[in-house]
Amino acid sequence: MHAVCSWLTVGLIALALHFPQVSGAAALPERITLDSLEKLYSKVDFDHASHIKMIKDCGVCHHHTTGTLVNDANCIRCHKNSSATQQVACKSCHSVNPFTAETMQVKGQDPTVYHNDKPGLKGAYHQACLGCHTRMKGPTGCQDCHARKPEGDALFHAGAYAPQKPAGKKHGQH
Fold it and tell me: For 166, how many CA atoms within 13 A lie in the half-sphere containing its CB?
């Protein structure tokens, strides 16, 4: 019996080494820090593990998983012959600064064709998060997930930087 257990253990280890995706499931991050808007908002400490338990299908949030082809219909229009993806992070395709000539240009293609249909990182997060949160009755307020910093208040004329009403005048009076 001991010999059977030893061979079974060796076999399982060999399988895990031969098929890395079997052991790779444990490598999924439990928490992810989203900090692309850190100048204006506090970092979001995203609870990836709880979202995985709730949703159970990675394709709901991601256009692909590591080692697979892109499955988003919009991306497939041009990337149907692309190789399997190596990263699933939103920022690996969606740029923090989407409107620069470099990020809009489709590399290796007609120089007049641009990725003007691909949202930037902020847009991609908001499309995915807000759409799902609306359907599932999750938080949808701007500061429910990330508190605005004073720099954000200054940019958006909010908080301490909000325009003050003139003293003694009611709203709508001139």
Answer: 7
